[in-house]
Amino acid sequence: MFFAGLFVGYFLWGVRANKATLPEAATTDDPSLGPADAPVTIVEFSDYQCPYCKLWHDEVLPRILQEYGDQVRFIYRDYPLSSHPEALPAARAANCAGEQNAYWQFHDALFSNQYGFGRQAYLDYAAALGLEIEAFRKCLESNRYEDEVLGDFRDGLRLGVNSTPTFFVNGTKIIGAQPFAVFKQLIEAELAQNK
């Protein structure tokens, strides 16, 4: 246990040197959970086809939301890697679901990987969620969220993101699907500073 704590402390010491300032305007149009005035903001740059993003989504995010509730605001930003050919279409599809107030349900469905990826899979997810299919289909065909997704990607590049998932916890950069203990220690430190 001592060595685990030592590792987490050393890791966070190295991470704190990578503090970045995220312009507030850069995250105002992105999907978020939690209050805008939460003392801790976690911004994730993620890719729906990334297995490590799925792992973090399944194992760490629910624990953070459960344990910290209104003390944390979580913002999801798209970072579709070129090695994942469906990452960009999946991100566009999630934004289309957002037009019907189902962004987070679609986000979770994509990470469930129940139907896989591809145009038909996105239509299947939409149908399973009870979305209006024709409106969803038209949104998909229009590619109207291409600029939004690529804008997230460009913002990530400017912040030095080069892999997924990458997080910024009140500006402190964390790379990779780190365990809950890493996030807990950093969140607790941020909450202590905000008292």
| Rg, alpha carbons | 17 Å
Low-pLDDT sequence parts: 1-17
Order of helices and strands: HEEHHEHHHHHEEH
Mean pLDDT metric: 89
* SSE class: alpha+beta
Shape: globular
Q: Separation of termini?
A: 28 Å
Number of DSSP strand runs: 5
Explain how this protein is built.
- It is a single chain.
- The protein is an alpha+beta fold and 195 residues long.
- The chain is built from nine helices and five strands; from the N terminus they run αββααβαααααββα.
- Helix 4 runs antiparallel to helix 5, helix 4 packs across helix 8 and helix 6 runs antiparallel to helix 7.
- The protein starts with a helix and ends with a helix.
- The N terminus is likely disordered.
Short description:
This protein is an alpha+beta fold and 195 residues long. It has helices spanning 2-16, 51-59, 61-68, 87-98, 103-112, 119-128, 133-142, 146-158, 180-193, and strands at residues 32-33, 40-46, 72-78, 166-169, 172-175. It is built from nine helices and five strands, in the order αββααβαααααββα.
